[in-house]
UniProtKB/TrEMBL annotation:
It holds the Pfam family GerE. CDD domains: LuxR_C_like, REC_NarL-like. The keyword Plastid does not apply. This is Transcriptional regulatory protein LiaR. GO terms for biological process: phosphorelay signal transduction system; regulation of DNA-templated transcription. Gene3D superfamilies: 3.40.50.2300. Keywords: DNA-binding, Phosphoprotein, Transcription, Transcription regulation. The keyword Phosphoprotein applies. It comes from Streptomyces lavendulae subsp. lavendulae.
Length: 218
């Protein structure tokens, strides 16, 4: 059973997300919080597997809570709940190393899938957020060419193929199905690809893919 902590200062939002998650037989919401301080305390007290944190809450927000949970309960996988227009917060959270990001208006299926994937140790960023961050980066960045672009040439054909799918927002499981390979194999390809590109996460790799012209919608 996947034990989940849900933190959001809006009671109706928490109730709606909890209702969705309770339809999954392998997920249980074991704790709820209305602010970051409470979320930090409950994450350790209830030995949760996944913490779903609203990125903005009064007092101690989700970002601060994520940092504290990482320090005090490092085994907990944190997923940030966000909305469009909060990309600057998402960028900060990416640097903090959270496990995933999900839009609040995601479908019930996407929410359940995200909790399951993150609980297995697979980072997840919704395709919408990936596109949002990439769009913000490409429209605002006026600096020199990213030196990581030269590293794309070091990728194998398979790693480049995986990079394109990651940039499109596909999970390891989805990539595996498309390439007819096991998730473990895909996870290894993703890890090597990120290392070769010197990228800390999938969003950074997606930006490199867009900058390198690997995607048709660039």
């Amino acid at each position: 059973m996947i034990r989940v902590l849900l933190a959001d200062n809006q009671d109706l939002v928490r109730a709606g997300i909890k209702l969705v998650l309770e339809h999954a037989e392998d997920i249980e919401v074991v704790a709820e919080a209305s602010d970051g301080h409470e979320a930090t305390r409950l994450a350790a007290a209830h030995q949760v597997d996944v913490a779903l944190l609203d990125i903005q809450m009064p007092g101690s927000d989700g970002l601060l809570a994520a940092e504290r949970i990482s320090e005090r309960a490092p085994s907990v996988r944190v997923v940030m709940l966000t909305t469009f227009g909060e990309d600057e917060y998402v960028a900060r959270a990416l640097r903090a190393g959270v496990a995933g990001f999900l839009l609040k208006d995601s479908t019930p299926q996407e929410l359940i899938r995200a909790v399951r994937l993150v609980s297995r140790g697979e980072p997840i960023v919704s395709p919408q957020i990936t596109r949002q961050l990439i769009g913000r980066f490409l429209s605002h960045d006026k600096g020199p060419t990213d030196p990581r672009l030269d590293r794309v040439a070091t990728l194998t054909d398979r790693e480049r193929e995986v990079l394109v799918m990651v940039a499109a927002g596909a999970s390891n499981a989805e990539i595996g199905r498309q390439l007819h390979l096991g998730e473990g194999t895909i996870k290894a390809h993703v890890s090597r690809m990120l290392t070769k590109l010197d990228c800390a996460n999938r969003v950074q790799a997606a930006i490199v893919a867009h900058e390198a012209g690997l995607l048709p919608d660039r």
